[in-house]
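Ticket reopened. Same input as before:
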Amino acid sequence: MTKLLEDILVLDFSQFLSGPYASLRLSDMGARVIKIERPVIGDICRTLYVSDVKIDGVESTIFHAINRNKESFTADIKEETELEKIKKLIRKADILIHNFRPGVMERVGLGYETVKQMNPQIIYAQISGYGEKGEWKDLPGQDLLLQSVSGITYLNGNQTDPPTPMGVAAADILAGTHLVQGILAALFSRFDSGEGALVQVSMLESLIDFQFEVLTCFFNDGYALPERSAVNNGHAYIAAPYGIYQTADGYIALAMGSITLLGRLLQCDLLCKYDQPSEWFDKRDEIKTILKDHLLTRTTKEWLHILEPADIWCSDVFDYDTLLKSEGYNVLDMEQQVVSGNKKIKTTRCPVRVDEKILKSAKGAPALGEHTLAIGKEFEL
Amino acid sequence: MHLPLKGIVVLEFSQYLSGPCAGLRLADLGAQVIKIERPQKGEAGRKLAIKNLWADESSLLFHTINRNKESFTADLDDPQDMQWIKRLIGQADVITHNFRPGVMKKKGLHYEAVKEINPGIIYTEISGYGNDGPWKNKPGQDLLIQSLSGLTHSTGNYDDNPLPFGLGIADYLCGNQAVQFILGALIRKKRTGKGAFLQLSLMEALIDFQFEFFTTYFQSKRQHKRSAVSNGHSLLSAPYGIYKTRDGYIAIAMMPLQKLNAAIACAALNVFEEKEAFEKRDEIKAIISAHLLTATTASWLKKTQPLDLWVMPVLNWRQLKETDGYKVLQMEQQVQLNDKEITTTRCPVRINGQLFLSAKPAPAVGQHTENIKATLSLKL
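Engineering reply: fixed in the latest deploy. New output:
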């Protein structure tokens, strides 16, 4: 047995991103993941209209990115005979995942208490938007909405900008990440206790955890709200020069560092006057304005040539066009080809190496119901 | 409280955020996490404060990330101290470190060496950019990784500079992925006795974080562009984004344009068809922006939420803290530091309805060295 989760069977009832991202990682670790989908429509993500890029003109690229290395079994849970098949599968499964709103699985007779009767060893894992209780529990658990109530939108952008959401589905991805942690912790203890468990994560709790450092400042600093820097904000709680600056031909990122040292290296006398480290936070907008003007005078490459040898924390700022041409990206071997039906699709791989091996799998996302017959036979449904 | 990782010993050679936030989660799940620190000074993160907030000699930031852990000091260049470290390794299940490539090898604590002492060890290393290539010795700092990974082109509007996330996403996500794989490796170890060598990098974590964008880019060969108005996600159509209202802000996620129109009665939207919602998103969003300014957030919510449209108010922390939705989650907990109480957040995962809480503060430098040595001596 070389894979971390060899022989572990996951039934994934979830849709969109949060749950499927969790099961993707479990499949990367070697688990067998079967998506349980509704006939005809399947996971809504299959047709989620994303930008103007579709594969075969039908399915979204996002669906393929999230659902590679999985199988698809279709069943109409509302039909008695189909539900029986699902129940048979549940008896064989180690893990069940869903991300329906609270109460939905209970209504179809697949709530935790019922499932536990069928299979006391199962790890039953669910992601909600806002938890199982309270005024928000029935509201849609969508990423932008969760970001918006979590306070996180007041951390990005500059002081005078409106609240600015992170442009990646952070709540979905982090909730999926935390769910895997809970699932595997419960699975680990099952090997001693023989007992399954209910694992619950909500997107809101995940976003609060993501902000744990700055929220702890808020709690212990008289509930002072974050103040984004007015100039090139990189982090509301960090001193100058932290941020991204325009140069003569592009951009440069500067992380933490001494302002006076920067002043000397960049030959910017105005900066050298700030010789008290406490000023680097208190007067950060003033300092960053000076830096902003100064960095415009030369190219990114020129600045990096000066700063990198002095071990100043700095870097170029790439988009995908430039990143994909860089050796630093290519040496990581982050891309992989998966095969889905007769299509070849390029996507990224699992980010973690195990025993010095990159984890890749050519198995693409399944067509809707692609494995229904085979799974039916295998499990004698 | 049932702690699934009770009895698991983790040696944390990590500093700052990525490795230590992994250690924090393992500690909350019940592992004994021992920070291995330099004598006197301890971990570098102790002196890293944000907003100049301190809990004692160490920053509030350090206390936030390192609660519920123990501290063992050792000088890794001192042969006697190294004997203790090797004895500790013999008893440990997991090691984490996030030094730059080559540092642990110089100390004789690279995987090959550690495996000789303890073949079942789960050895976890976190680097900035992996162990090969031109960036391997670059500082693995969060903002730099965001900048190189392309992430800064996702947030903010079309005309903005590249805009970073205002939080350490690379550190945080990578630490969380480390926890996933450590747990996976603990499961394999339980079934087979086999240890594991896990390697992560902040850069790979952020590429994975953008997997939807990369996969889309691989098909289209076009760099995605942020929307010029209220950008929420560069791959999504109008109305997706945050809009100003008469008294605040409202977030509007995916929904058919005419459904939104029916709810908010914005006549100027009548002419747009759904298939134009991506291509003409800036034009459409500008119209929505102007319209939403005419009434309050509460009044828009009243018109949209009952129709199950995907909308929410935009809250800051003070507003969030007052809501019932926040209070029922019980996300806060108190950590007892001598005579001081620090309020922080708890582990976001529940198992069997149980919250994982712990009042145990971050350790002082070397606070548990003598105790741990005494326990090790008993075991020999």
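Chain A has a mean pLDDT of 95. DSSP finds 17 helices and 15 strands in chain A. Please confirm and we'll close it.
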